[in-house]
């Protein structure tokens, strides 16, 4: 069972899509991720509060919804799996956050044009497919990344990541996952 860790919706449960198609970020990893954002000299509360956020490969929407709970102004969600998309819409409705969310069916590798650029971007694609560089290129081309956007990518622990034009701020390992914090150049 997923729960929101902190903020306005702290403790609220989120539904997760059934099966193995999506792999929701655990509560423990989300807590660590947001603790880093909150306290890092290269981020801070202002990295989340009052920002537009993109949760690509959204699944249940846990990352974007956690950001909203912690004060983000708006969250956009990109998800291509229809079952996950239905669960995501259910989670947004349960939290009564429809006014601050855009739930978009679609592929992060071929995204629609952004309605507005986002200052904080979460990428949690399936591990081992080297999708982060491809998704970032497509999202930048479609106008999703604000200048100097902070990108948080969740990868498999052994997965390589080389991204010219992005400055790595930090990396942390949590079980099978590795979180990489990047700043768009």
TrEMBL record:
GO MF term (any one): 16S rRNA (guanine(966)-N(2))-methyltransferase activity
EC main group: transferase
InterPro entries: RNA_MeTrfase_RsmD, SAM-dependent_MTases_sf
Record's keyword terms, sorted: Methyltransferase, Transferase
Keyword Glycoprotein annotated: no
EC number: 2.1.1.171
Keyword Methyltransferase applies: yes
Residues covered by region (Disordered): 1-26
SUPFAM superfamilies, A to Z: S-adenosyl-L-methionine-dependent methyltransferases
Extent of Basic residues compositional bias: 1-13
Family matches, as NCBIfam families: 16S rRNA (guanine(966)-N(2))-methyltransferase RsmD (TIGR00095)
Protein name: 16S rRNA (Guanine(966)-N(2))-methyltransferase RsmD
Annotated organism of origin: Falsiroseomonas tokyonensis
Gene assigned in the entry: rsmD
